[in-house]
Design goal:
EC number: 2.8.1.7
Number of helices: 14
Enzyme class: transferase
Distance between the termini: 22 Å
Mean pLDDT: 91
Largest sheet: 7 strands, mixed
CATH topology of one domain: Aspartate Aminotransferase, domain 2
Pfam family, one: Aminotran_5
Organism: Streptomyces spectabilis
Number of strands: 17
Protein name: cysteine desulfurase
Radius of gyration: 22 Å
Strand order of the largest sheet: 4-10-9-8-7-5-6
Length: about 450
């Protein structure tokens, strides 16, 4: 086996939040200064990592699908529901004020986490998929005209393909695929050639969920802007693995999901460059997104409330706030360095498994290894690993065009996070080798 990744010095565990608070605001974890990092420290905070599956300790390698939640998030949700559950923005009583404060603190935390200009550039949604659809409907429907083009790289997740196909059908625009290189990178020459005065929008994943590819988003965005095109960056797979600065990226829109960031499901966020706010139109109507309503005339609330009709996922925002605070309590450069080392270790270790082929070899990648195993269907590989308590994903990963680029319909995927270890990689490799020996 290859040498284990070097350990990073550990940090003191963040203080646990009270479980029976009198005031939910004081119960939530406070933002701490970034400290040192070790995977063992992160693991101590995540209860589910200490359970067993089929008689074996859980090895969670399905982080690309969803990440597990630290106790700080779980306790924040409990504290909110125990002491501050209320609707927001429209109440004058104490709990309404507390809940509103928490919700808007979450918006501020997201803005700071993304390097956004202000909290007013952040709108909450159910996740990446809804945020993309929101942009398509709120901005795209009023902007796209017949003959306009939307450039979509082949590596994109279905949620960053299908909404644009639907918009193109409605507006008579065109979705133009941007091909990949054999390594699984976006073909930059083809991208440059495809850009034109007809290009209205470019969409790019900051990291691929199936190949792990990290494209040169900043450079691609700058080039698109030269043609007057707008750029939407899908950060679903990036936010848990690398620092994000939307202003440096130049993104007009940036979207992500909380559940890929150690937060609850059903919550995500959309960043809009300030100049884009003027171009957004109401998508859904209802409470919270209006200033006044009569049968003669309705006036709308300013951004970002314009895009948040109805009661939002308040507890989800509370959990997202706690998740961001937890992640930011670690030194982010140390986390990134550790994940890079773990990815190198896993790549070398999996190369020792007979008949195993990793899909994609981009120079810049997050810790995702999608693979096939000779003689075994990906679903049967995942089933075998599950018997040993190892959770991986099998299927098309909602990225069928990317797999089709390699002549595949499905594959297995091991995706890593900051709490995974080289010992877990060893268990994955040993189980795969047993599967091959049993064949």
């Amino acid at each position: 086996m290859p040498a284990s990744p070097a350990e990073v010095p550990g940090a003191t565990a963040p203080a646990p939040a009270p479980t029976s608070p009198e005031n939910a605001l004081s119960a939530l974890p406070a933002t701490t200064a970034p400290g040192a990092f070790s995977p063992e420290q992160a693991r101590k905070d995540v209860p589910i990592l200490h359970r067993t599956v089929n008689g074996h300790p859980l090895v969670w390698l399905d982080n690309g699908a969803t990440t597990q939640k630290p106790r700080q998030v779980i306790e924040a949700l409990s504290a909110y529901y125990s002491a501050a559950n209320s609707n927001i923005h429209r109440g004058a009583h104490t709990m309404a004020r507390e809940a509103t404060e928490l919700y808007e603190a979450g918006r501020t935390a997201v803005a700071e986490f993304l390097g956004a200009e202000s909290p007013q550039t952040i709108a909450f949604a159910r996740g990446t998929t809804e945020a993309i659809n929101l942009v398509a409907q709120s901005w795209g429907r009023s902007v796209m005209e017949p003959g306009d083009e939307i450039l979509v790289p082949v590596l994109e997740h279905h949620s960053n393909i299908v909404p644009w196909q639907l918009l193109a059908q409605e507006t008579h625009a065109r979705v133009v695929p941007v091909p990949l290189t054999p390594e699984g990178e976006i073909d930059q020459k083809a991208y440059t050639d495809l850009l034109s005065a007809r290009t209205q929008l470019v969409v790019i994943s900051q990291a691929s969920n199936v190949l792990g590819t990290v494209p040169p988003v900043e450079e691609m965005t700058a080039l698109a802007h030269r043609y007057g095109a707008r750029v939407l960056v899908d950060g679903a797979q990036a936010v848990a693995h690398m620092p994000v600065d939307v202003q440096r990226l130049g993104a007009d829109f940036y979207v992500f999901s909380g559940h890929k960031l150690f937060a609850p499901t059903g919550i995500g966020a959309l960043y809009l460059k300030p100049e884009m706010a003027e171009l957004m139109r109401p998508w859904q109507g209802g409470g919270n997104m209006i200033e006044s309503v009569s049968f003669e005339r309705t006036t709308f609330a300013p951004m970002p409330h314009l895009l948040e009709a109805g009661t939002g996922h308040i507890s989800g925002v509370v959990g997202l706030l706690a998740a961001i605070d937890w992640l930011r309590s670690f030194d982010q450069e140390a986390v990134a360095a550790y994940e890079t080392a773990l990815m190198t270790y896993a790549t070398q270790a999996m190369a020792t498994v007979p008949g195993l082929e990793v899909i994609g070899s981009a120079a810049e990648r997050i810790a995702v290894l999608t693979f096939t195993l000779a003689g075994h269907d990906p679903a049967s590989v995942a089933d075998w690993l599950d018997r040993d308590g190892i959770a991986v994903r099998a299927g098309h990963h909602c990225a069928q065009p990317a797999l089709a680029h390699y002549g595949l319909e499905s594959a297995a995927r091991a995706s890593f996070a900051l709490y995974n270890t080289s010992e877990e990689v060893d268990q994955l490799v040993a189980s795969l080798r047993r599967l091959q020996a049993a064949a």
